[in-house]
Amino acid sequence: MSDLLNKALRYRWLIFWILAFSYILVYFHRLCPAVVAVDMMRDLRAGGTLLGLLSSAYFYPYALMQLPAGLLSDSWGPRRSITLFFCVATIGSILLGLAPSAFWAIVGRALVGLGVAMLFVPTMKVLAEWFRVREFATMTAILMVMGGLGSLTAASPLALLSNWIGWRLSFVAVGVFTVVMAILVWLFVRDRPADLGWPSPAEPLGSSPPSIGLLEGMRRVLTYPRFWPVAIWFFFDCAIFFSFGGLWGGPYLMQVYGVTKAKAGHILSMLAMGMIVGSPLLSFLSNRIFQGRKPVLVLSSFIVMCLTALLAFYTDGLPTAALYLICLGLGIFSSAIVVIGFTTTKELFPVQIAGTSTGLVNLFPFAGGALFQPLLGYVLERAGTVGGAFALSGYKQAFLILFVCGLISFLACLFLKETLVRE
Asked: Quick one: 30 and 164 in the same domain?
């Protein structure tokens, strides 16, 4: 038995790293339009509103799939679910690269969002089967770091690749990489050690608490008043990150400050660096320094509000170093902070509905991105263009909206319930 357990302990790392490298694609697709937005507007003859709809087409199916993701993971199993939906993402990425019009580009991006939506929840289920409870938080943090690497590839590397082969072939190449990962998942990932005849490294759970049905779990979550400040915070906080980091940050840097696409990619890469260093940093602050979730969320939201104020009120007067620091700050305090947000949500409810509560709250960040990306595009387009670029007044209005989002998310944090039980 010990030999079989040792095999399981070794093999689980192969599974983890396949899933972790697959997770890079999730964040790549989430943020990639920012660097190539200007090229896409030109080639697809799209204005600000249409480009906003194209970029946000990723978020609608992603948000809607969060609850079905858990159900499909339980019925089909993570391995089958991830493989099938990654094939859908492959088709979407290739269609996006070959799209003859904005309509087909939107269809392709929606298929990408649908496909990559089926990774995070099934991966959580796989980790729960292959890793011990005390290891789970560490593995989740590493997974978030890999997401940060995905954001990094959507900045400077994508800028360089698109300069070399164009944005269209870049998405075709990413589609090929996606199907390769789908094949690796099918060949090597297993839902649980028992599928290979091995014992589970995870500890036995003992007597299980009574299960709670999906509808009853949803009712409990949605009728619990403490759930809504977290949901509101997620909605407006991620609206900021996805609107700036996922789309309009690139055009802003190139059109207001006149930097090249490669330089814009370098600046935007600080978003990814913030995610990579921010996840373990904020977890350490929450667990060891503040010994609470709420203080870290309040502090982070206050910093984000200040950063959006700089963008709104000093839109064209920021030194280059400040632009780097703003992107770094947004990566830490608007993106990496969601690890604490999800932890808070999980701790608000019994373990039997932890998946339901996480799935429900995960609707809100992507709803924020889906709404505000095209909204900012409409504001920019309405303000007009100067020499083919959006007017400075449009960016000021757009970033003022993000400042209001920062203010609302900060106020929502003040109503959060502290969920960390201190020993």
From this structure: yes
Q: Please, are residues 171 and 100 in contact by the beta-carbon 8 Å criterion?
A: no
> What's at 185, amino acid-wise?
V
Beta bridge partners of 386: 389
| Count of structural domains within the chain | 2
141 and 229 belong to one structural domain: no
Give domain status of residue 212, yes or no: no
Host domain of residue 120: 1-196
Return the biggest CA–CA distance within the chain. 72
User: How far apart are alpha carbons 115 and 158 in whole angstroms?
Assistant: 21
Tokens at residue 196, please?
A: 């290979």
Return the CATH number at 360.
1.20.1250.20
Residues 14 and 82 in one domain: yes
pLDDT digits (tens), the chain, 423 positions? 577 778 888 899 999 999 999 999 998 988 888 888 888 888 998 888 888 888 889 988 988 887 787 777 777 888 999 999 999 999 999 999 999 999 999 999 999 999 999 998 888 788 878 887 667 667 777 888 888 888 888 888 898 999 999 999 999 999 999 999 999 999 999 988 888 888 877 655 445 556 677 788 888 888 999 999 999 999 999 999 999 998 899 999 999 999 998 899 999 999 989 988 888 888 888 888 888 899 999 999 999 999 999 999 999 999 999 999 999 999 999 998 988 888 888 788 876 676 677 778 888 998 999 899 999 999 999 999 888 889 999 999 999 999 999 999 999 999 999 988 665
Structure tokens at 422: 């201190």
185 shares a domain with 315: no
155 and 229 share one domain: no
Residue showing tokens 């697809």: 44
Q: Which backbone phi and psi does 389 adopt, to 5 degrees? A: -110, 155
